Amino acid sequence: MTEVFSATVIIGILTSGIRLATPYLYAAIGETFGQRSGVLNLGVDGQMLLGAFAAFYVAFTTENLWLGLLAAMIVGALMGLGMAYVTVNLHAEQGISGIGFYLFGLGMSELLFKMLLGTVETVKGFPITPVPLLSKIPVIGEIFFQQNILVYGAFLLVPIAWFILNKTTLGLKIRSVGENPEAADSLGVSVARVRYFTIILGGTLSGLAGASMSIALLNVFQQNMTSGLGFIAVALVYFGAWRAWGVLAGALLFSMVNSMQLWMQVLNIPIPSDIAVMLPYILTIIVLVATVSRVRAPSALTKPFDRGH
Amino acid sequence: MTDNKLPSGHTRIDTLEMRGITKRFPGVIANNKVDFNVRSGEVHALLGENGAGKSTLMKVLYGMYGPEEGEIFLNGNQITIESPTDSINQGIGMIHQHFMLVETLTVAENVALGLPSSRGFLTDLDKVSERILELADIYGLQIDPDAYIWQLSVGQQQRVEIIKALYRGAALLILDEPTAVLTPQEVDEFFVIMRQMVADGHALIFISHKLHEIMDICDRVTVLRDGELVGTKIIKEITKSELANWMVGREVSMTRELEDVERGEARLVLDHVSCDSDRGTPALRDVSINVYAGEILGLAGISGNGQRELAEAVTGLRPVTKGRVLLEDEDVTHFRPGEVTERMLSYIPEERMKDGMIKDFSISENMVLREHHISPFAEKGFLMLKNIAEHTDSMIQKFRVKTPSRETKAGSLSGGNIQKVVLAREISRNPRVLLAAQPTRGLDVGATEYVHAQLLEQRKNGTAIMMVSEDLDEVMALSDRIAVICEGEIMGIVPRDEATPQKLGLMMAGESGEE
Amino acid sequence: GGAAAPEEVMEEKPMEEEAMDEMAEPFKVAIIMPSSITDLAFSQSMFDALLAVQEEMGGEKAMEIVYSEGMFVVDDAAAAIRDYASEGFNLVIAHGSQYGSSLQEIAPDFPETSFAWGTTLNTFDMDNIFAYEADAHEGGYVNGVIAASLSETGVIGVVGPIEAGDAALYVKGFVAGAEATNPDITVNVNWIGSFSDVALASEAANTHVAAGADVLTGTAQMVVGAVGVAEENGALWFGTQASQTSLAPDVVVANQVYDWSVALDEMLALIAEGTYGGEAYTITLENGGLLMDYNGGYELPEDVKAAADAAVAGIIDGSIVVPVE
Amino acid sequence: MRSRLNSLFDSLLPVLATFAALAVGAVMLIILRVNPAEAYGALWEGAFGSTNAMAETLVKATPLLLVGLGICIAFRASVINIGGEGQMIIGGILATQVGLTFTEAPGWLVIILAIFAGFIGGAIWGGIPGLLKAYFRVNEILSTVMMNAIAVQLMNFLLRGPMIDPAQAEKASKIPQTARLLDAFRLPRLAPTRLHVGFLIAIVLAIVVYILLWRTTLGYRIRAVGQNPHASRYGGIRVRRRIVTALLLSGALAGLAGAIQVYGVNYRMITDGSASGFTGSAGFNGIVAALFGQLHPIGTIPAAIFFGALLVGANKMQRVVQIPSALIIALNGLIVVFVVSSAIWRKRRQRRRVSVENDEENTLPPDLGANVPSPEEAQIS
Ligand SMILES: Nc1ncnc2c1ncn2[C@@H]1O[C@H](COP(=O)(O)OP(=O)(O)OP(=O)(O)O)[C@@H](O)[C@H]1O
Ligand SMILES: Nc1ncnc2c1ncn2[C@@H]1O[C@H](COP(=O)(O)OP(=O)(O)OP(=O)(O)O)[C@@H](O)[C@H]1O
Ligand SMILES: [Mg+2]
Ligand SMILES: [Mg+2]
Known about the structure:
Chain A is mostly helical and 309 residues long.
């Protein structure tokens, strides 16, 4: 029995770790863009919920998953637009407006769910799409290449985000706006435009994060189905020290430990379930302590930019 | 129409005129109906005391501040400038008094920021680096394009600012105190660049508190006082002392005689001290210096050669890796900054905005940064606000800090007035040992004179003073002895009467001054 | 025989019925729920029962129902309870064991108002508090019996929120039923530490599947995602609290459905008599408060159905005692 | 007179913003076929309509204020404490344990001990992220979010096991709750409502925190560290210790809020598996209250009451017009966004006002100092 388990367990932990990491990746990479440009968005969870609902509802009524995906992105982008207007134009305190948007998304998604659906329904979500050839590789193929398309998307996002942030002029602008908006502004970089871009992008990706749950991984919508996942995603940005790869490491660590604790319970390892559930949180902190990072937050994070006074 | 193009391809700005500019800040009118104009082929000096409104006027021109009133005309046509993007598009560039650099980016990235890239969406940092090296070569500004800004000394950062401006090749360039942190040699090289640019048809606006620089390079000068225009004159028609007089409203004496003061015991002893830089590389190598009561020891050197680290090692801000620091015979090598402070060591840090004061604190709060916890400013853990207020008021008066009130946020003061707050705090405690890094950088002539007087006063009182400065004139004018530092090593210590600019210059460049 | 009670009461008390009609004052019920009325679980089970009772009594004219959902903040619930009571509601139901303390506090101030709470049997010895509870382990046991009979791999997975209360009770019953049917069966239980984390619940189900489970069950509102996982992997699903058949018509075998109307009917009868509380009700298989709801779309083998029926009968007649300690 | 009117307008600004948000909410209500007037009438009624309503509002405001005070301290040190939920829980647990342990002791003593225990519990839960930040550079947003989750699970574990009500331990359906505290241990009530002395404690603490931040050297240091750690270190301030102090105090106040919730409202700990069942999300909403109060302890008092009123009134509104609770949550979100956005008008007005006043000043004789020659001292002029 135990022999069978060891291989199964490892594959199991990795596969479900990867699935669990998916929404975190979308949301946390989106948040990374925002924070790199100096905006802390605590409303991620709300954006995810509204995105999840939009995706689900559109997919449910039109039976077209891609339309659902689009809907989630649009809704996320709109939430981002609101956040951008409030923080960039109105200089509202970022943390608190994020909480406001979180509450709005939390409530609105449930309200719409009640009005439009009334009860929990299911959709046929994105199916598992094995990657040709790669999925045939033993073990690895099973873990990485037999997932649904939104899972692949999340992991592809990491190198893309890294590339945009570090290799493009846009990335240069984003980084400088988050670090020293006065300097960027003095060189003709529009701080507002850059921040609008990153916040809306962040919202779009949060919407996708929600969609990855409601029409790819779980295929249901329920009120508050993210249960604070968006806040963990924000925390993971700090774990990853505002680097795409770091965020990936954080998301994987957190998710893997989470799936490991599920396995621990299944394997009857005698620790109380509550303590097992704590593990991902504790380990995330311990790893950070062990790998003392010297990177500091973008200097302008949470600071509104106001030229001319 | 090629003759209104500059070599860089920009369209020349024949005339630029600002009319009736008014800009207010809470409690201050920084510019009050100021007229100003500059034309192609001239260096136009903008002169005025600290807080006169020079930077503000230039920031209005550059689009960083929106003025309440006023108009701007370019080549006779009225233009609107609402953001730096507008001014950049009009061919205006600016080197800022407080650097506009992104610390976490490299030099090349800072230069490339905001510019179109030859690779479209992708950055072309290799190309930019190449061009930076070219420019550095042409203008004698040594700089490593791949270095991060936070790794650079203030002087090096100033060079990056200059390169940034050169790289962009504006038709009208505003230079807000670019020479404040350059060495005399660098200033000379910089003037060569400026002359070249003027000859090419650029228009330059130059702000500096060093009158000889203005006499040297400028064609016309406009003087501001308290936000008001005093007037504009042609440099050739005015002398340096007239200029000082005109600006301050009275005579200013620039040369000083050192009074004879009995040299006392060695108050500060550095005994074979080594320490590392922020980057983890050795910054100080085996430095041994004594500073005696009643003397001013000048520490000359090009910025970035370990001066900052030396001061921080002494003040407990930076761990000492080898050797000992003795303060009045007490070993303070591994003391915390607070413990060093308690032993009456004062330190005027070079980067005062970052290290020396808290921008969002009021002037009074900044005034007691070091002594907020001791009598008379605190009793039993409670702040004595009345005493703090009285002390601050007297400091504001004594040092003539230009501010609406003592409750004004320190960060909203003009560059020079920020300095005064720090100086007032450090000097007024009558320290046993005073470390002063670039104490007069950015101060107007009147203020410089006052600070010098204060330093000499302290010297007379028996304080041991170490003055770190790149300004050789200043070092030679005030120091009893001059130590020269290069790459973290002391090249030698020269008595005042043996010091010549040539000799010091050679030592600063790394030649040993052993006698 | 609980179901017949209200009619008897009505017959015995024609005077009161008349009086009610004259004033046209409907019977006013308020309910406070931690989750939402559409959670396909605990909260919905009570709300549906209320609607059923309302229907039975003659619609909105006879009975007015108001609700406060999403009252997970105990303190807010307390305010709601007090508020309803002071507004003259006849029956205030605090549908969550976390509300007990508040009720104990408030009830003495409103002797004319009837309160009910669950799941518990504790009326605090007050004569205006009813208590109610579901013997969730009974249906759990029956589900377990069927599950063990249908499992081919011999591994069953359970997804629960936190190991306490109603959920713990159901799981204990389920495990007992499965083990009684097949002593060699492995029942893996995963407590995910949350009532709302749909993602983790469904990943727990995935874990069970990967560990070889071909039959799954789970309790509380966050399992909706787990049902989908069962469906995707062709594993069978057993629901509880409310019917979850609609979520995965192909794989849901059976649900234990709570029908609180049994308890409600009795409470209403007593209230009509002027007894405002002091009684505790348990819905069980025996009294019809717990119903085994089979998915018509799933063809349950005859012998398994027979075993299930035997379990139900055994529990009702007492020959099977579900161990819950 | 004009300045009086101005500051009146400023203090009314959040209220106006709230009205604006409610107007948007009215549209949603109309869509839901609910009469907004009736709904908002109920909201007002629920928050301020009676003595009881007002008492409920203040009861609700109490933990918001306490957490908010902690947030004032932390944010002034530039430490973003999102760990209020966890800190409240641990404070609540420790305080409860005191009441369960010392059943023989006099009530006043147990209450004092419990408040102290809550303080300590929160301090521990805030201090850990503080230490992690100061000495291991672990970002506090991350650690406090994680610590919240850990606290919830710890609470679930304790209430299911070691601390479970002995009466529940014997039952099949073990409700995860502690035994109820003795009646003697309850916080005394003010008036015959649910309002308890915890509210007064919070008000007093607001003044204490104000004094701490602006009248003591410790407060000076905390603020200095928050504004500029470099300059603070240079000024002799022990930066890392002050970061720990700030988070510790912040956590302690949240822990105190937890203790007061137990002894003033719930009289026991009980878990529904999440944090908010116990905290009512005060750990989060306290942040909002503090920021509404502009991170000023005294400003946080009306802000907490305002927010408390909103929460209490919204619940009443849900009851009266029977709308889904979700609408209330969404509406709260809107109000938060609107109020926080309205701050810009206050800032703009302040700026305009100062320059106008400055104009007036300029008609006065110019500053004396500028004209007085001082030949003796070579003064800067
Ligand atoms: N952002 C600001 N907010 C408020 N007041 C300001 C601001 N910038 C400048 N001021 C005020 O405006 C006045 C003019 O400042 P400015 O920086 O233009 O002086 P300056 O002539 O450049 O002086 P310095 O030689 O010291 O650099 C000063 O009194 C200063 O306090
Ligand atoms: N921002 C910083 N950058 C570099 N080094 C630092 C910084 N902050 C602290 N240190 C190092 O840590 C030492 C202690 O710093 P500080 O006095 O601020 O901490 P503290 O509050 O005294 O903490 P403790 O005494 O518990 O170590 C300093 O001497 C310095 O070496
Ligand atoms: Mg200036
Ligand atoms: Mg220390």
